[in-house]
Design brief:
195 residues; alpha+beta; nine-stranded mixed β-sheet; two-stranded antiparallel sheet
């Protein structure tokens, strides 16, 4: 059983066959847990052969936006390929030491998570799931694990979200606060509150 960790300072982790398996090993008394589902959520490093899958994840995240354009499929495909390549290059140039992971649910590739653990902050650079895996607590579980890591390290967790994205409500629910915005994005931060 996989659990959502509701508060920080819970010990976890198990590494098996190159995968980080998110398992709760011990809980301090003030932690609350909630069952998510019976599927194992794992992270593994991206590999070159994941390129087509990562493009699929990226494309699914842009579907609603591109539906509004009325573009034919060929135009969409070319546009998405260029945008995906630009995103990949931008992330790797801006966050060269980030963890670029494929999310697996029950052993099946389900999405992507990019986290940059820098000296002054942990930054959630990207979290995207295929539609079949959205709304099942997978993203919430992964973010809560990142928040727990941030709390243990005494660092804030930061991210930016495109204005109008549904993810904004998830981030607010998890305790992120708006710290700024520009024409396209809202910057958010989560800070561990002292017990």
């Amino acid at each position: 059983m996989i659990f959502n960790i509701m508060f920080a300072r819970c010990n976890y982790a198990c590494v098996s066959e190159g995968k980080s398996v998110l398992r709760v090993l011990s809980l301090e008394p003030f932690c609350q847990i909630m069952p998510v589902n019976s599927l194992a959520i794992t992270l593994r490093p991206e590999r070159p052969e994941d390129s087509a899958f990562l493009l699929e994840v990226y494309s699914s995240a842009r579907k609603e936006e591109l539906d509004a354009t009325g573009w034919p499929d060929v135009t969409r495909k070319v546009f998405l390929g260029m945008q995906f390549n630009a995103q990949q290059q931008g992330y790797r140039a801006t966050f060269p030491l980030a963890e670029f992971n494929v999310i697996e649910v029950g052993g099946q590739a389900a999405g992507r998570m990019v986290v940059n653990r820098a000296e002054g902050e942990f930054r959630l650079v990207d979290l995207a799931l295929l539609p079949a895996h959205r709304g099942q607590g997978v993203g919430t579980t992964l973010i809560q694990n990142l928040l727990r890591d941030g709390a243990a390290a005494g660092k804030p967790v930061r991210l930016s979200v495109i204005k109008g994205e549904r993810a904004f409500r998830l981030y607010e629910r998890l305790g992120f606060k708006k710290t700024g915005e520009d024409i396209l994005r809202i910057q958010m931060e989560w800070q561990c509150k002292p017990a």
